[in-house]
Amino acid sequence: MASSGLQLFAFGMALSGVSGVLTATLLPSWKVRVDEGSSIITAVVQLQGLWMDCTWYSTGMFSCTLKYSILLLPTHVHAARATMVLACILSALGICASTVGMTCTRLGGDIKTKGHASVAGGVCFLSAGISGLIPTVWYTKEIIADFLDLTVPASNKHEPGGAVYVGFISAVLLVISGMIFCTSCVQKSPQTWLYPPRQQNNISTTPLENNSAYNLKDYV
C-alpha cells in the first residue's frame, strides 16, 4: 500500500477538485463580454453561465436572469450541464470511497478491502476529472471559434470566463488524485522475482556408495 502521506496529499487535491468543480458549475462566468460604451460610466459586463446570465453595470447594479428555456440553448451548453453535474456526483462518490480506502483511517477492515475501496475512489476521481475536462475544453473551443469568426457580429463575441479556468484546473486535480489512488493499492514484493527460492538437491548418494563398495570387493 502507498504511504499515508501520499494518500492524504491526493485526498487534499481531490477535495480542492471537488470544490472547484462545484464552484465552476454554479458560477455564471463561463462567457464574459465587456461593453465600455461611450464612457466608463456606461460600462457593462455581461456574464453567461450554464444556468443563468448576469449583467454588471458600472454604477454598481447587478442583475441575473435564469435560463428557463431548454430548447433555445445550444448543444455545448446542454453537454456542459450534464457533464459538470456528473462530475460533481462522481467526485462526491470518490470522496466517500477514498475515505474508506486510506490507510490512515480505521474504516474498511483489512488491507485487501481498503485496496479495493482505494481503487474505486480513484476510478471515480478519474471519471469525474474527465467529465470536467470535456465541457471546459469544448466550451472554450466554441468561444474561440465565435470570436475568430468574421461573420459573427462584435456584440455576440465573448471571451472565456473565470469559471472555465476554475473547472479546468479542478478537473486536472481530480485526474491526478485519481491516478494516485488507483496505484496506491499496488503491493511491491521484489523478493518474489528477484530472489527465487532455491531448489534443494535431494539426490540420494546411497546407491553410489553401494556401487563403490561392490567394486572394491571385486579386487580382493
Question: What brief labels describe this structure?
Answer:
220 residues, 5 strands, alpha+beta, 58% helix, elongated
Give a verbal description of the structure.
This protein has 220 residues and is of the alpha+beta class. Helices cover 58% and strands 10% of the residues. The protein contains 6 helices and 5 strands. Helix 3 (111-148) runs antiparallel to helix 4. 29% of the residues are buried.
Question: What is the typical, i.e. mean, pLDDT?
Answer: 80
Low-confidence stretches: 188-197
N-to-C SSE series? HEEEEHHEHHH
Strand content: 5-15%
Question: Layout of SSEs?
Answer:
Elements: H1 4-26, E1 31-35, E2 44-48, E3 52-57, E4 62-66, H2 75-101, H3 111-148, E5 159-160, H4 162-183, H5 191-194, H6 206-218
Antiparallel strand pairs: 1-2, 1-5, 2-3, 3-4
